[in-house]
């Protein structure tokens, strides 16, 4: 017999003006986990810029976020593989809001493929989106984040803690992201900038799960907490890590997976 514990929404747990006056810059914010993070931070007072390749979808998401939260959200179309377009997104954010406090590096690409069938370009594409894209985002935002003594959250994974079949490309990229976050934390800590990683497990209703979970496969009973995560679970972790309550936490990885990777065979 199991009793599942679900998460509270951020409004029930955190004080409503926790991020008042703060500005969030989020890559991959159009949908899924990152949308939920931005929505939660905005509902606690932040304004935001969301970044992604799909200009139309991005604009729709920004408008929805504004309606849901009453805060301001800028949509800046950019590809994290293109430093110039990212710098332009940062420039627009500074022009609109005057600052960037917290950066969520969430843009990612993934698909299932065995190494034997993974072309050099396929491997490179995922490494360029996930790892190089994170580096590009850091480079573009760091001057403003230094000014505000803000912080970074990188959305990683647990796939690379063990060998996950058909995920060589993303596992290699996410291992790099984890290392990059720790290096950033070490270099920028003396300037008051923090950098942490959130490693989500199986999160229901996300594009990642749609792509990776074999049709019909049930994972809930493999997870110690007996359910897939929700995007709210990840958003709550992000709120904590960006809040003053985490002022002494940097170079850390917060795994939010209901205990999954320790116990489950595979995704
Ligand atoms: C093998 C594949 C493939 C597949 C693409 N490729 N899909 N190879 N199996 N299923 C190859 C292509 O053939 C090509 O190589 C190369 O990858 C680049 O493909 P393009 O389509 O040209 O690239 P692009 O348009 O830039 O698209 C990038 C993408 C795409 C990653 C391939 O899927 C994408 O844009 N995804 C964004 C959204 C996404 O993936 N979200 C899920 C994130 S989930 P060749 O050799 O033919 O040129 C996530 C969670 C991880 O990250 C952790 C989960 C627990």
From TrEMBL:
<dbReference type="Pfam" id="PF13561">
    <property type="entry name" value="adh_short_C2"/>
</dbReference>
<keyword id="KW-0560">Oxidoreductase</keyword>
<dbReference type="InterPro" id="IPR002347">
    <property type="entry name" value="SDR_fam"/>
</dbReference>
<dbReference type="GO" id="GO:0008670">
    <property type="term" value="F:2,4-dienoyl-CoA reductase (NADPH) activity"/>
</dbReference>
<keyword id="KW-0521">NADP</keyword>
<dbReference type="InterPro" id="IPR036291">
    <property type="entry name" value="NAD(P)-bd_dom_sf"/>
</dbReference>
<dbReference type="GO" id="GO:0009062">
    <property type="term" value="P:fatty acid catabolic process"/>
</dbReference>
<dbReference type="GO" id="GO:0005777">
    <property type="term" value="C:peroxisome"/>
</dbReference>
<protein>
    <recommendedName>
        <fullName>2,4-dienoyl-CoA reductase [(3E)-enoyl-CoA-producing]</fullName>
        <ecNumber>1.3.1.124</ecNumber>
    </recommendedName>
</protein>
<dbReference type="InterPro" id="IPR045017">
    <property type="entry name" value="DECR2-like"/>
</dbReference>
């Amino acid at each position: 017999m199991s009793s599942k514990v679900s998460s509270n929404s951020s409004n029930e747990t955190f004080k409503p003006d926790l991020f008042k006056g703060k500005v969030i810059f989020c890559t991959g914010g159009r949908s899924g986990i990152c949308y939920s993070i931005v929505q939660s931070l905005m509902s606690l007072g932040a304004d935001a810029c969301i970044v992604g390749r799909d200009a139309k979808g991005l604009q729709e998401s920004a408008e929805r976020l504004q309606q849901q939260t009453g805060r301001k959200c800028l949509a800046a179309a950019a590809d994290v593989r293109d430093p110039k377009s990212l710098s332009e997104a940062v420039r627009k954010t500074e022009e609109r809001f005057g600052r960037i406090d917290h950066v969520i590096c969430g843009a990612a690409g993934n698909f299932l493929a065995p190494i034997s069938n993974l072309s050099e370009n396929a491997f490179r594409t995922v490494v360029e989106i996930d790892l190089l894209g994170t580096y590009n985002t850091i480079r573009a935002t760091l001057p403003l984040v230094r000014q505000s003594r803000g912080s970074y959250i990188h959305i990683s994974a647990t796939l690379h803690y063990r060998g996950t079949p058909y995920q060589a490309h993303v596992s290699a990229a996410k291992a790099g992201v984890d290392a990059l976050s720790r290096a950033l934390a070490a270099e920028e800590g003396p300037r008051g900038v923090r950098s942490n990683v959130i490693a989500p497990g199986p999160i229901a209703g996300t594009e990642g799960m749609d792509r990776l979970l074999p049709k019909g496969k049930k994972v809930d009973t493999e997870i110690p907490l007996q359910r897939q995560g929700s995007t709210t679970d990840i958003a709550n972790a992000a709120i904590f890590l960006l809040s003053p309550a985490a002022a002494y936490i940097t170079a850390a990885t917060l795994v939010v997976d209901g205990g999954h990777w320790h116990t489950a065979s595979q995704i």
